Give the backbone structure.
Amino acid sequence: MSAGRSIPGWAVGMSIFGSYISSISFMANPGKAYSGNWNPFIFALSMPLATWISVKYFVPFYRLSGHVSAYEHFEARFGAWARTYSVICFLLTQFARLGMILYMLALAFQPLVGLDVWTIIIVSGIAITLYPLFGGTEGVIWTGVVQSLVLVGGVGICLIAVVLEIKGGAGEMFRVAIANNKFSLGDVGFSVSQSTFWVVLVMGMVTHLQNFGVDQAYIQRYVTAKSDADAGRSVWMGGLCFIPLSAAFFLIGTGLYVLYGQRPGTIPEGTKAEAVLPFFIGTELPPGVMGLVLAAVFSAAMDSNLNCCATLYLCDIHRRYVRPKASERESMMVLHISTFVMGALSILVALALTQVDSRALDLWWKLVGILSGGVLGLFLLGMLSRRATSFHAGLGVIAGVLVIFWMTFSPAWQKQAAANNLGWMVSPFHDNLILVIGTLTILLVGLMTSRFSPPQSRAVRIGTEGNLDAYQEPATLD
């Protein structure tokens, strides 16, 4: 599960980078640039500050704790309920993530192999489940290194191929894109009901902090690094490499917009924006190049995080509630079975997504906001407050879940609410802010309700009995 803390920092960094890039990125980001502009690219530009905060505070925290599970300290800080709540939120998010990955992968391959989407989802889902089943975390990391190299090569070749197909080349691509405002980063106004520059920036910041602060998939990776310095460098490497590759994805989408603007009527009517790149791959690329690009698409999908899900089930559910003294043999069996079961559940999610008519990236960001449950707010509450107890954290979580529920479902009541003069009850916030406001609600409610409680001891607040002097504690708010 932790690979003996023996992995070089550069390999961990490549694995983190590969984990950030999935087939969601490969299909959805070019699709967004093709149909819109570069507004979602702000998500990548918010990475440096989030990475700095994570390296300064989150990485040393988890390296000190010595836990394989990212959520064990939640129990020491707030009780077993907080640990279980965080694990459930992570597992639900990962099922949605892998389901979306398999769905995007099927969209890419379906025009090329002649099979129906369901068959591709099932076959690829089995493949993506098998390799972490046999390789463990060390296998996932080293495979991630190779995947990242294939991914970068495939994206580079795809971008070059798109530009070469455009009459006039890169110069014409930039001229047409600028004339049509395709490089716009979005409205810089302060509206909370639109996907403005600021909305995506704040959402990106909170998402990156959540990934490095409470996401088992990333924490389990940098915990495997040889040293604290290697762990910090791995997070910097993974985070900063994400920015130029994201730009390449958006350039591909912009190039496809220009290319098919020169060839009106080429794309079949009714083709989704996410399916334009697969259409280009299948109709424009020669077989050898097409194979490399498809390998890159599949490599992006191979980072399933199923090993992380299995780790959490073993550490936080099986050993916590079912068999606290499970033997090594039993533990390995549980890891294998849970990996298989979770892979099967993710396949079912992917099959369900085939019935959803929504843009992939928008749907994914909304699902993250809903299913993550504001767990980052719970984590920050434990780090920033000396006074917060299980009671205050529970009040924060209840308030956060209610706010997430309101922001998610109240827009569906808009017509009925307006007819009954209850329009004020409908959330005015854009879906991209569900994660942000849910997180802030848990943090702020926990802080406000804990103002009159005595401070907790340092060991309780950190949630570890290890070498507390080795941990550089962040400034607290009270």
Q: What stands out?
A: The first helix runs from residue 9 to 20.
